[in-house]
Amino acid sequence: MRRICIAGSAVALCVAAPARAQLGSFNPPPGPQKTFAITNAHIVPVSGPEIASGTVVISAGKIQAVGASVTVPAGAEVVDAKGLRVYPGMMDAGTSIGLSEIGQGANSTVDVSEVGSFNPNAQAVFAINPHSAHIGVARVVGITHVVSRPTGGILSGQAALVNLAGSTAPQMAVVRNLATVIELPRSGFGGRGFGGFLAAQNAANTQDVNRTRTRQLDSLRTLLKDAEAYGRAMDAYAKDKSLPRPKQDVVLASLVQAVRGKMPVLMIADRANDIKEAVGFAEENKLKPIIVGGRDSWQVTSFLKDHDVPVIITSVMELPSREDDPYDVNYSAPAKLAQGGVRFAITSGDAGSEVRNLPYVAGMASAFGLSKDDALKSVTLWPAQIFGVADKFGTIEPGKVANLVVTDGDMLEAKTNTKYLFIDGRMVPLDTKHTDLNNKFKDRP
């Protein structure tokens, strides 16, 4: 038992409570950064040929050496991985993990969006709950870092890249403001109707939707232009203090890097026409787009390749959206993107609770035409490249962050178990809410 003391202005109240009650967390904290040597392991570096039996040395949170004849440093803690495999940690680039715990029926646990249509200054990193039960069960399958993004409205806010270990959101954050999230309003469309009054009403509704959409797009364009002008004004003032100081504006300031093309913009789009429109809007406003969703992206591979726009595909495990689609239309979409030369990454397609299924989603894509090597890259190296963090993540190479997974089999196979897990060079305990409940009730009569 630990004692928790709540100090007030005049008194301190001390109560006895278990450590877990103190935090309300199912995620045991990682150990300290120190020197580890993972020896006798089958190493899958992703960036090059596999090493049948080799050593990975970790120190100061980074990978220091990898190879078949690496010397174990004096004083290193040795992890004998004979019969085991070492992989780089996986990255799910399409989540809202940590922002929502119980999406249905517990509104107080949901913090994925703000009110209103334009919230570019909303930063996901400040709302992430490091004690979310979703984090523990996601990382033990080999997911070590994720992109968590806000949703809602047209300009949702800014996504963060976080490691799945840490007691506070700042400890977890790798890139606090990774990308701006935009979801363009969709156009209205007329159905066939049944003639007469219903057809006329449907046409009127479509016109109303399109008028509203036009106003929203005009407002978005104006906001982006204002942000560009704001950035120029701040630069001018920084060079010449004799100029009038621009009025501080947190909304416009949050968009400056995006309108300059220095911060990617996540464009939420699934239908082929919406994907094309999102890319066109981004190019019109000099944004750097990444399509998120991409259900029909396989239909526009030439367009995406010509415009060099990557896709974060979230729909691999979804049912077909049209009644005449083949059953495997979504399973085979990643293979078609690869054949078309489109840069892409596979995600779990889930905001939080099912992020843990990421390896099996990639495995499904591999079963439907995507090569095994590409399936692994789609959840390790390729998302890191798309977001400009491949110098830190995605492969097992000296100098990269030591986010590593040691397994007893193929990481994308459901039957595989994680034996050791390292995040930021720290060994992470493998206890989760699932193991906790299993231990409690496994012997129940």
Briefly summarize what is shown.
The chain has 445 residues and is α/β, with parallel strands linked by helices.
Explain how this protein is built.
- This protein has 445 residues and is of the alpha/beta class.
- It has a domain at 90-186 and 243-393: Metal-dependent hydrolases (TIM Barrel, Alpha-Beta Barrel).
- It is 28% helix and 23% strand.
- It is built from 13 helices and 18 strands.
- The chain has helices at 19-23, 133-139, 169-172, 196-239, 250-253, 256-259, 272-284, 301-306, 333-339, 358-367, 372-377, 381-386, 433-441, and strands at 2-7, 12-17, 36-43, 51-59, 62-67, 77-80, 85-88, 90-95, 143-148, 155-163, 173-182, 264-269, 288-293, 311-313, 344-346, 404-407, 418-423, 426-427.
- The strands form 3 sheets. Strands 3, 4, 5, 6, 7, 16, 17 and 18 form an 8-stranded mixed β-sheet that branches. Strands 8-9-10-11-12-13-14-15 form an 8-stranded mixed β-sheet. A two-stranded antiparallel sheet has the order 1-2.
- A hairpin with a 7-residue loop joins strand 3 (36-43) and strand 4 (51-59).
- The longest helix is centred in the middle third of the chain and has 44 residues, at 196-239.
- It is globular and about 65 Å long.
- The two termini are 29 Å apart.
Summarize this structure as a short list of keywords or feature phrases.
28% helix; TIM Barrel; alpha/beta; 13 helices; 8-stranded mixed beta sheet; 445 residues; disordered N terminus
